[in-house]
Amino acid sequence: MTTSAILKQLAKLSPEERAEIQAKLDELAAPGWQDTDDPLSEADKKLIEERAAAHEKDPKSAITWAKFDARLKRRLGK
Question: Quick count: other Cβ atoms within 10 Å of Cβ 22?
């Protein structure tokens, strides 16, 4: 859904629904909302950074979702 479509739909919502959306937007705008209960360990974060750097160095090393999905299914025996 596009931003303009969302904005058009907002006008159709009840005051209670708009208040619920506003509360969620306020929550998302608060500093640090993404860092609460962070499930990633420092080792996980480091691995992600290393792999992102490796991809930036060699973007052609990436594979399509279809190839990844097929590899994963083979590995899991599905």
Answer: 11
| Per-residue pLDDT tens listing for the chain (78 residues) | 899 889 999 989 999 999 999 988 888 887 766 666 667 888 998 999 999 999 999 999 899 999 999 999 999 998
Domain layout of the chain by residue ranges: 3-35, 42-76
Question: What global pTM score does this model have?
Answer: 0.41
Enumerate the H helices of the chain as residue ranges: 3-10, 15-29, 42-57, 65-76
